[in-house]
């Protein structure tokens, strides 16, 4: 199934309802300024071309992108807000799309990128704010492409890169504010042996045991 349709003009028309986009192939779509307060499921969806717009969308319930494939086109979450119970990107594959989380706010609940794979394309978290909920990159694999957290705000030690693997591509944290997330704290103790392509701000480097 392929869709390039638009969200309803009135943002509240999505509120309080559940939507199932499981397995849908998107070649475009406009969900901008929508408010999702029910359960929305994009599991195994394929974002293969065109522009899919989630700009200023509010996820106030549960949203799933489990096993979704971002393989082409552009997916834009700029200035969206994740304030519900769960935004799940578990095992999602970022393999060619341009995905933007510019100034996205993760303020409540859990944003879960556990076991996600970043192999090609570009994923940007410029000036994203991790301020209240938990954000998990546990077991994520950074194999290629570019993932950029420049200027992101990390608060409350709620972001976890535990057991994440950095084997290729570029992962950038320049200008990030707040303390280094878990796992990156460990890597920052030995800046000379950082994985190739992992770029941390100098003030995250430590000299402890």
Brief digest:
The protein is built from 1 helix and 27 strands.
Tally of contiguous helical segments = 1
Biggest beta sheet attributes = 14 strands, parallel
Task: Give the overall form.
Answer: globular
Low-confidence runs: 1-10
The average pLDDT value, as a whole number, equals 88
Number of domains: 1
Structural class: mainly beta
How much helical structure, as a percent, in the residues?
A: under 10%
Rg (C-alpha, Å): 17 Å
Number of strands: 27
Characteristic key phrases:
14-stranded parallel beta sheet, mainly beta, 7-stranded parallel beta sheet, 36% strand, 209 residues, 1 helix, globular
Describe the structure.
This protein is mostly beta strands and 209 residues long. The chain has one domain. It has 1 helix and 27 strands. The strands form 3 sheets. Strands 1, 3, 4, 7, 8, 11, 12, 15, 18, 21, 22, 25, 26 and 27 form a 14-stranded parallel sheet that branches. It has a 7-stranded parallel sheet with strand order 2-6-10-14-17-20-24, with no helix packed on it. A 6-stranded parallel sheet has the order 5-9-13-16-19-23, with no helix packed on it. β26, α1 and β27 form a beta-alpha-beta unit. The relative contact order is 0.11.
């Amino acid at each position: 199934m392929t869709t390039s349709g638009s969200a309803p003009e009135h943002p509240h028309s999505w509120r309080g309802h559940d939507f199932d986009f499981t397995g849908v192939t998107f070649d475009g779509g406009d969900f901008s300024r929508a408010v999702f307060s029910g359960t929305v499921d994009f599991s195994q969806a394929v974002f293969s071309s065109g522009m899919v717009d989630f700009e200023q969308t509010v996820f106030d319930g549960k949203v799933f992108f489990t096993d979704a494939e971002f393989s082409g086109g552009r997916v834009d979450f700029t200035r969206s807000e994740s304030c519900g119970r769960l935004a799940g990107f578990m095992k999602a594959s970022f393999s060619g799309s341009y995905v933007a989380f510019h100034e996205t706010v993760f303020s409540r609940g859990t944003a879960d990128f556990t076991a996600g794979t970043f192999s090609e394309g570009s994923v940007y978290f410029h000036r994203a704010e991790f301020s209240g909920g938990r954000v998990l990159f546990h077991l994520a694999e950074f194999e290629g492409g570019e993932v950029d957290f420049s200027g992101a705000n990390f608060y409350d030690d709620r972001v976890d890169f535990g057991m994440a693997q950095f084997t290729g591509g570029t992962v950038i944290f320049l200008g990030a504010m707040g303390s280094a997330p878990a796992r990156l704290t460990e890597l920052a103790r030995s800046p000379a042996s950082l994985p190739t392509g992992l770029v941390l701000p100098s003030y995250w480097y430590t000299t402890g045991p």
